[in-house]
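hi got a favour to ask and not much time before my train. below you get a single protein, a line of residues and a line of whole numbers that encode the local backbone shape. could you go over both lines and see whether the tokens make sense for that sequence. a few lines back from you is plenty, here it is:
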Amino acid sequence: MSTCSNFEDIEKAFYSDGYQLGMKAVEKGMSSKVIQLCIRDMFTAINNLIESLSVFAKKQGYRIACKKGCEWCCHQPIFALDYELDYLSSFIDKYLSIEEQKEINPGLTLTIAKF
């Protein structure tokens, strides 16, 4: 298979996964809890994809600089949608102690841009 064909297959699978997650949320009533669960599933799938790409790159002799815990994201703008920020806030409240929450970058600023 050519690289272009592989990319098209991956792209189709990516959109199919997103569509299935969206339909799951719709079929289960679109409650806040259902949406949160679908977002969790989406991020799990993305993390699995990143892990697979990392393994593939390593086998090819390439090094991926980005890794969990590197903190580089703390030094650059991060763009997120409302639902992602809601999910992140819920995750922080649920899984981080008050002490850990206080350790999160106190200089963090939130700028909301309207497009």
In short: The mean pLDDT is 79. Residues 3-103 form one domain.
